[in-house]
Description:
Layout: H1 2-25, H2 30-33, H3 46-58, H4 63-66, H5 74-77, E1 83-86, H6 95-101, E2 127-131, H7 138-151, E3 160-165, H8 166-171, H9 178-185, E4 205-210, H10 236-245, E5 253-258, E6 273-277, H11 283-297, H12 304-320, H13 322-327, H14 331-345, H15 356-368, H16 390-407, E7 412-414, H17 415-421, H18 429-446, E8 447-449, E9 468-471, H19 474-486, H20 493-519, H21 536-560, H22 571-580, H23 598-606, H24 609-617, H25 624-642, H26 648-661, H27 664-671, E10 676-678, H28 686-696, E11 705-709, H29 717-722, H30 724-727, E12 730-734, H31 742-752, E13 761-763, H32 770-778, E14 789-791, H33 798-808, E15 817-819, H34 827-839, E16 845-847, H35 855-865, E17 878-880, E18 884-885, E19 888-889, H36 893-903, H37 909-928, H38 933-955
Parallel strand pairs: 2-5, 2-6, 3-4, 4-5, 10-11, 11-12, 12-13, 13-14, 14-15, 15-16, 16-17
Antiparallel strand pairs: 1-6, 7-9, 8-9, 18-19
Amino acid sequence: MSSLHRQLSQMVGVWRCKRRLEVSLNPVAGFHCRTFCSTTSEPVDPIEIHKRKLILWFSHLPQEEKQFGGYFSPETMHVDPLIVETKPEERARPLSSLKTQTSSSPSMTVEELFDRTDTWNEGRGLNVLLYGAVGTGKSTVVRKLVLDWCAGTTLTHFKLLVPFSCEDLGQLTKVASLRDLVSRKYLHLRKHPLLSGEGNQAKDVLFLFNGMEKMKLDFRIGSTELCSDPNEALPAGAVVVNLLRKYLLPEANILVTTRLSALDRIPQKYVSRYAQICGFSDPDRQRAYFTSRLLQQSGETAQSHDTQALIELLYLNLQRESQLAAACFLPSYCWLTCATLHFLHFTDAKAPIRTLTGIYTSFLRLNFGGEVLGTGAGTSVPIQEPHNSLMLYVVRTVGKLAFDGVTYKRLSFSEKELEQWIGGKTKTDEELHQLAMFRTDVLDFFLAPCVESGNRLPVELSENNERRYVFAVPAMQEYLAALYVVLGENKSPLEKLTRKVSVAIGQASEDVSAIINILSKFIPLRVFAVFNLLKLFPKLFEKISSKSKGSIARTMAAEMFRTEDSYNEDVLDQVGQSLLGVHGPQPQQYSEGPSFELYPIFMGGLLHYGNRVLLQQLGCSIQSTTVAQITRVLRKYLVREISKPQPPEELMDLLVLLYEFQNPRLTAEVLASIRAIRLTSIRMTSLKCFILSSVLLCTPARYHLEELDLSCCHLTHDMLQMLWPAFRHTHILNLQFNSLGTDSCILLRDLLLEPKISIKSLRLCDNPLLESGACTLLEALPENQSLRHLSLMHTGMGDKGALQLAERLQQHTGLQELNLAYNNIGDNAALALVDACREHPSIHTVHLYLNPLSDVGKQSLYVRGVPKSHSGSGRQVKVLASVTEGSDISEDWHPILSVIRKNASSWDRERVKQQLKVFLRDLEFGRQQQQSLLKRLHFHRVEKGIRQTLQMLEKDTLPPSTGHSK
């Protein structure tokens, strides 16, 4: 048996070996298998190795892309931006002028850039300079170009493509030859003949230098020696200069990418062709980008219909709202738009934790990560020095402008104001160079000319015929203003002077103390004790600094709970409307001027550790001690404000703030002072449900809400699943007016069967549960003993549901009140239910009004609700079947009429009118039976209220439903 097993194993081994050999010879599959197959002795082509490695490197997505769940790939999400060939005299056009001039320009591909020009000389390759502003898509074009070359779909006439990062080359300190530079990064190309310089083999080579602005190049003969030997060691900048001069490998072709400010780094005589990346200059490119992104972000095919509708709304808003279209001219802002929409519409419990602040911080890291502020001639300053950080310079200039706008409620700024806040105090030549580079490369990225809605790109002029500027995305103004405050850049001149003096005295006091300690050993004079006062100044500054951090917390709390913004749409809805527009009636704006409700939320989100790490990479440091001081003061102010009654919109904004903060301890301490979360009429989304659950998960197990009100919130079955953790923390759960169906009853049944559930009141009024859903829900009654109040008004449970409830009542001994009004329950089922309630040990009230009960049935219900005798087993149960009880007015007539008035706008009006007329008939009959004048007057009063409700129904003047029920 064992010999047979060995023979079979040998046969399988031979088959596997042959199979590996066949696969290795297959030109398609061999790409994946050569690494693992050792049966062939043929040498592997270095070019193939090079392509495999380039695919691995350039297919790697940045961390900012991975946070969306891994739906993306460079091949499927790429949309080519507009690339236009420019003349040398046109190459310095600003970004704002391109938006109107490129619509009629013919678009070129990167492959067409290497077509032979009229000035081309035999034996000399082309030098193509591809330039563009920040965010126009240069790095994306380079990545797609490399991957397409590896796949053999573009630039196939080049046998070898050698990409370099100029940022890496600029950091090299040792001299190296061209071949050493290549082998340093691509070891497999170390001895490749195409780079030997012999003959004209280099004509099949394309060098790609990405980010030339990050490298120092000097084309002066006296500074950079000439070199034609690819084996001669030179500084990295000199090697690149000689390649561009065509002294080194003159047959090679070169593609250089750079920003606008670095165009003059390469003299015009060394450039064969200029081409500018102009972003997405037309809505069709923008729509193609959004479609490729969002359709993948939806993940599941079931969401594709909703995603298509989302794209349509976005496209309509792009056509209608030209300011958004102007921002999406830059592919980077298209990325930000998609990331925000993904956050708003595709967040679920399985996705990684993402915050709005994190999206904006990642956006800045993608565009400005690790950059320093140069002077236009290259720089080698390490990125660890914060005073050279480009992002910090942005905060101190553009952030200061944003803070001024938020403070004084302004969205647009004049050119004079830009001059005042950005570069208004520059003095030295170096500062002027930095400002010129900043204005050329960065300023247009954040600010754009103000445009009017409805036109393509007109210019908005002020009263003085002056151009106005706005932030490309309104939320970016609030983000930069928040970053400006959190980094402490809004200090007064006195605070800044105090800090400098404190640092100087603190350093001097250490040296003075050391000298005094030595002298006091020989000269014991008490006068030396005076110098100890120097140590007090840094401590005094620490107290002043802590008060400054406390003012940041006070600003957050004050901006969070502004009275004039209390009744605006919640902040997440405002973000969505800014992208998709408002379809239907415009939301009522209660505050005068623009509202900046994201501002305090961004301030809280910037204190999160993950965002601080990203900001540290950008050169913007927020110390942990600063976060601790702000958090300590913020906790006190939030607890004080939340103790006051807050509108649902304001409460939702607070939950968003706590979620953005991502501080479980602070969240638990703030929620400890909250006993009810009422989000009535908030349009809940999967994101809002996720935020509510995430925030409540920060609380300890012993924490419980008295009430969680989610009535009229457009909840769905999927949202209920996300809210499951939140339901465990509440005593009164209000889910009225949410269109929950029978599938939701399964989830609610399982919720009631949870061992540690503490729900005492469950309100499901005006949800189409139907008989099957109600029966499913009632399956939880035997094992659940926490429920005291069950409201199933207007759920369509019918006679079958009422009879099953009557059978199961004895298995649940804790119920005290049942609301089954407006459920199409007839006389027999109602009588059976009341009889079961009389036998129940604790039920004292049953609501049965607005059901099709006969007069005899109502009378029977009233009679059965009264105990037969004091010695009988039946209990007294209050049955609310009408506004009358026999010939008397029910003491609960007012609550019944109030419930009808508040909910009739969403009910079947003819059915409600019919029931109200039955009430009038009952009242008229009861009034005729009364002898007392006072009782007759009381009957007239009730009749008057019902007639007023009937008139309001007929004139359609009833207020919208508020989810109210008894």
